[in-house]
Amino acid sequence: MTNHWVDIKNADVIMLNGSNAAENHPASMYWIHKAREERKAQLLVVDPRLTRSAAKADLYVPIRSGTDIAFYGGMIKYILDNELYHKEYVLHYTNAANLIHPDFKGPEDLDGLFSGFADDDGDGFGTYKDRSTWSYQTDAEGKALRDETLQDPQCVFQIMKRHYARYDLDTVSAITGCPKDKLEAAYKLYASTGAPDKVGTILYAMGQTQHTVGSQNVRILAMIQLLLGNIGRPGGGVNALRGESNVQGSTDQGLLAHLLPGYLPVPTSADPDLQTYIDNKTKPGGPWSGGYWTNGPKFITSLLKAWWGEHATADNGFAYEYLPKVESAANHYWIALFEAMYAGKIKGAWIMGQNPAVAGPNARLERKALQQLDWLVIQELFQTETVAFWRAPGVNPAEVKTEVFVLPAADAMEKEGSVVTSGRLIQWRPKVAEAPGEALPDHDILDRICRKLKELYQADAGPFADPILRLTWDYGGGPTHPVVGELVDITKVAREMNGYALEDLVDDKGTVLAKKGDLLSGFARLTADGKTACGCWVFSGYYYPMPDGEGNTLPAAKRRGQKDPSGLGLFPYWGFSWPANRRIVYNRCSADPSGKPWPDGRDLIWWDPNADSGTKDAEGKPILGKWVGYDVPDFVVTKAPDAPGGKDPFIMRTDGKGGLFAAMNEGPLPTHYEPVESPVGNLLYPNRPVNPVIKIWKTDEGQEVGNNWGAPDKFPIVATTYRVVEHWQAGGMSRWLEWLAEAQPDMFVEMSEELAKEKGIQNGEMVKVSSARGTIKAVAIVTKRFKPFQVNGKTVHQVGMPWHFGWGGGEGEEYEALAKGDAANDLTPHVGDANTMIPEYKAFLVNVEKA
Amino acid sequence: MSVRLKGTDSAIMIRWIPKYTTVERFLHWVHTASFIPLALTGFVLFAPWLEPLAQGAAGVTIRLIHRIAAVFFGGVPIIYAILQPRRMVLNLKEFLTFSQYDLLWLKGAFPYYVLGRHEEMPPQPRFNTGERLTAIVLVLGTLIFGLTGLPMWFLKGVMPVWLFQLAVIIHDLMFIITFAMFMVHFYLAVVHPMMWQSLVSMRYGVVSESYARAHHAMWYYGEKRAKEMWEQHRREAGH
Amino acid sequence: MTERLAMYIDTSKCMACRGCQVACKQWNDRQGYVPGVRETHNVGTYENPLKLDPQTWTRIKFIEYDDGERFQWLFMKEGCMHCTNAACADVCPTGALKYGPYGIITFERELCNGCGYCSQFCPFHIPQLEVINRLTGEAKSSKCVFCQDRTTNGLKPACVKTCPAGALDWGDRDEMIAKAEARVEVLKNERGFPKANVYGKTQLGGLGRIYVLTAPPEVYGLPADPKYPAISTLWQKIVQPVGQAVFGATILGLVAAFFVARRNVHMEEVE
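Output (C-alpha cells, whole complex):
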C-alpha cells in the first residue's frame, strides 16, 4: 500500500476492485465504514460477482473476469473527455507533459502492438526487446522535453488520449458485459475525486493481479490515481491488500525469484561482479540512474557486509561472487519452477507454509511434478495435501519415488518476531503460546539446518564451500526448548535487518554518527565502503530505539504509542512503517507545487519557508526553509518547491514524475487483451486476442495431465477462483480447524439462476465442473448474486469457486482435514502474467454439468 | 371365615364376597405406586416455590423418576387389557353406566360421609357413583397424560412449539384434576373411618357381605331387588 | 435494577465475516465440525450451521432479498434477544434462566435440569436443548448469555469485541437505541434504504438486542410483533396458582371433613 489501513478513513470515494476486502481483509471494513460515516464517503465495488464486499457497496458494478483494462481504460477516457483530472497535479507531478520519441507507435497504429515488438518464431507471441521508441525526447543535456500546454501530439497526455479513444461506453460495455448506465455511474463517481479537495482510494487484491495482464491491471489503477491526483495524499493511494498477514514482510525480505532483500535486483549472469552489477543499474536510463535509488550501491554493499562480514572486503567485491547469478529471474518463478520440476530438472524441494498440491495452477500437473522429485522437505502445521501429495486421488503411492520429510512448524502465534502489514507497518509480536512437541518456528528450523550445513562443509569442504563457511550466522542465545535445546535469539536477526555500524561512522565535521556495533538510526547512515551492515535497507531503523510519544524509548517496531497529532490516523508512534517510519509514501504530492497542502483539510506535510533547516550557509547563518508536517516527508527535507526538482515528488523514479507512460513488458500503456481462455475475441484488436508477451507452456499438451487449453465451444463458461472469509489460502491453516470447517465445510461452485436453469441444476446439488485440465465436483450454489453478462450481444455465463479445498491431506482422522473437497486449481491454467508470472487464476473457461 | 375381634376373645364369622381379581389388585397398587411419585415429581416442576428441588442433578433425578413412574403408570392399563380384557371391558362398561340414583348419591354423599347419615344413600352397583367418577377421571387422565406426556418426552423440538405449549398446559390441568381426585380417593379409602373395607378389598379382593349389602345393594341384591328395597325404604321413611 | 445494557447490531455494516460466530465458540468453548458427530454440509448457501444449536449460540443468517427496487444480500446475527418480558426465564422451573444484572437473561448450566420449557416458549426459538439422552430426559439448555462472565466484569461480549466491521457495539441500552435511530436516519436519507428500521426497541417490553435493519424484520425471520406466549401467561398466572389453590382447598376440606366425620361417623359394625 502506498498509504495504510487506517488511512482508508480519509477517503471520499473508496473503490474496491479485484478485491473482496470484507472477506479477505475484514479489518479494512472498519475503516471503510468510518470513512462512510464520518466523511459520507461512497463505496464502489467492481467485481464479476456480488461478494460480501459488494453487498455493502453504494454502487456495485459487475464486469466479466479479465476485462479490467477495458473498464479502467473507459474510465480514463471518461476522465479525459470530461476534463475531470486534477490538472495541476497531472501537469507537475506526472510525465503527462513529457514528449515521447517521434517514432513511438501504439496499438491503434500497429493493430494491438506497440513499436518494438519482435516475434522471432512467428507464433504470435514475442517480446519488446527494443524499447528505444518508448523513451522521452531529450535536449542536448539529456533533460526530458516537456510541453506544459499538454497539446503536443507526442506528449504523454495526447498519446494516452489517443490510446484510450476507442474505450467509449458502448465498447467497454460490449467487452465487459457491464450495462452502460452502471459504467457511467461508476466513472462519474470515481472521477469526482479529481477535484483538488476530494481524494479517492483504490483497494485492490488478487482479482486484479492474477491475470495474464495482472501487472497492467495494477498499472492502470496507478494511472487513474495519478490523473485524479490521488497518490501521496491522505485518503488516496494505490493500495494492494496483500493476501497474507506477512506477505509484505516476505516481499520486503526478497522471498521472490527476482529480488534480494530490500527490492535489490537479483544478480544475473550479466552482472558477474559487484562493479558491473552497480554499473548496469546506475548507467544512464538505468533504474538507479536517478532519484533515491542512486543510493543503491550503499544498500547492496551493506547487505553483503551483513551476510559475509569480515570476509566481505572492498578487495573481493564485498564477497559479491558468493551470490548465485541467474540467467533470468523469470526462469525461477512459480510456473517455471514447476515446469522444471515436471521435466525432472529439480531433484529436491523445500516447502515452507505452502500447499502447492492444491494452490498451484493446473494443480494436477504440479502434483505430478512433485512426483519427479527425489526428496521433498515440508515445514507445516498439519498434514496438508502437499505433505501427502503421494496419496492424492488417482495416485498409487507405491509408484511415487519421492522421499518426504515433514518438519513440524510453529504457528504464527507460537513465535516472536516482526510482521509487516500491507501498509508497510512493521509490528513486533510476542509469542503468545508454546508450539506443541517438537514443532519449531521456521527461523529455528532454518538455523539448525544452516548450522548443520556449516558443520558438514567444515568436515568436507567442496569446491564452493566459502559462501556457506564464511556466512555470518550467529543467532543463538535464545530461549531453551525442552526438546531441542537452545533456540535462536530473534532480536539478533532484527539487529541484522535494522543494520549496524562495523566501524565508527563519522561525518565530515568529525561528529560521530554511530559507534562501532551500534544500531543504525536509518538507511541514511548506510555506506558503500563496507562500514555498515544491513540485511534489508528498507527496514533500517525499525529496531532502533525511538520514543513512543508517551515517555518510553524502545525498539521502533515494538512501540505502541497511541498519539495521533494529525487526526489522520497516522499514529507515528505505533510500530515502524518502512521506509523511515513514513506512513504515506510519495507524500510530497499532498502539497501543491508551491508546497501548500491541497485545500482538502487533510494537511500532511508542507513547505515552511521560515523553519530552520538545520544547515548553515557559507557565512554561518542558518538556512531557512524545510518540509514539515505530521508525516516523515518523502522528499529531501530541505529541497524548496522552487528549487530544481522541487516539484518532482516520486523520488524512487529517476525523473521524479509519476509515470502515466511507463515501460512494462507489454508496453508503456495498459491495453485490453482477453484472458488466455476467453469466450470471446478481443473486440478492440481482433488479431491480438491475448497479451502478446506472455509465455505459453505446452508441456504434455493433449495428455490427460498436461498444459491443455480450452475453447469456448466445449467450455463456454467463464470461471474465476477466490477465497472466502472462513478459510485461508489453500486451507492449510483453516480446514483443520473445527470452527472454520463448520462454517464452510464443502467445496462449492456459485452460478446464476439463469445458468442453473439452462443446465437443469438445483441449488445444493453436486455438480461437475470441468476445464481442459480436469474435472472436479462441487456443491452448486445457485444465486441471484451471479448474473450472466451480455458480451457484445452474446450471453456469457460466469461461475466462481473457492480455491481453499483439497481432498484432505494425511490419512486418518488425526491427520485429515475436516473440510474437504476437490481443488479448484485442478482446473486453472499454467500461464502467468508477462511481468511477474503470477498465474491466471481469475479467468479461465469451464463447463458445468449435473453430476 | 372367622375374624377375631381385636381385644376380645370373641370371633365372628364373616362372609366375603370377591370384588377384584388378583390382577386388578396388583395393577391398582402399581398404579398407586406410580401415581404418587408422578404427582410429587410433577409438582416439583409445577410449583415455583419448589425451585430448589428442580435444580440441577436433583431436577434431573426428579424428571427421571417422573419418566420411570410414567412407564409403569401407562403400563397398567395395557397390561390389564392384555391379561383381562373382558374384565376391563366389563368394568369400563360399568364405569359408564349411570342411573337416576347417581344424582341422589351425589346429594347424599356429603351427609353420608361427613355427617354419618346413612339413610340418604341410594342403592349402588358394584362401583358407587364416586368410584365410577373417579375411575372415569383416571381413565381419561391416563389417556391425556399419555397423549401429552409422550410427545413432550419424545417429540420436543420436533413438534410445533404451540402444540408443546398446549400439551404442557393440558398435562397440568389434568394433573390438577387427578391429583385433587386422588387426595379425595386416598382420604376415603385410607383415612376415612368408615371405609376400611375398601382397603381390605384392595388388599384381599373381597368385601364383607354386610358391606356389600350396605354400600353396593344393586350388586348384592341385583338391580331390581335393590330398587324395590330402596323404594320401600323411602316409603317407610315417609317420603 | 441496575443499568440496562444492550447489544447494538448494525446489519448494514455486517459483512458476514462470522468472526462473531467463531469468537462465541472460542470464548464459550463450543464445538465446531466434529467428524461423525457434528458435521455441517453445504446445501447451497454460505450459511452454516443452518440453525442455532447447543454448540452454536450465535450465527449469521444469509438472506438474498429483492424487493424489486434493490437487491440486497442481507446478513443477520442471530442469538438470544434478552427480552424484558422473557418467557424462557418465566417458565424455567429451576432458576437456571434468570433475569440477571443489566437486563441479561443469565443462564447457570449447573441449575438446569433439562426440562426444555425455555426452548419451547421462546418467541424467537432461541434456547437450544442439548439432549444428552432422550429416553431419560437428560438434557441441558443453552443460549447466548451476552457472555455474562465477561459483561458482568466490565468487558464486552466476545462477539462484540471481535467484530472488525464495527457492526456490533455494547453499552447502555438507551444509547444503543439512540445510535440505532441515528443510523437508520442515515441509511434512509443518505444510503438509499427507505425501509431501514430499528428492531428491538419495543418488542416484548424491549429487547437486549437493538438491530439496525435495511429491510422489514420479517425478511430476516424476525417477527415484527413477537408475542409473549399466551399459554405461558395462562400457565403462570392462572393454572399454577389455581392448581395450588385447588390442592390446598382439597387438603383443607379433607382435613376438616375428617374431623367432622370422626365425630359423626362410626366404624361400621361387622355383623
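Residues 442-459 of chain A form the longest helix (18 residues).
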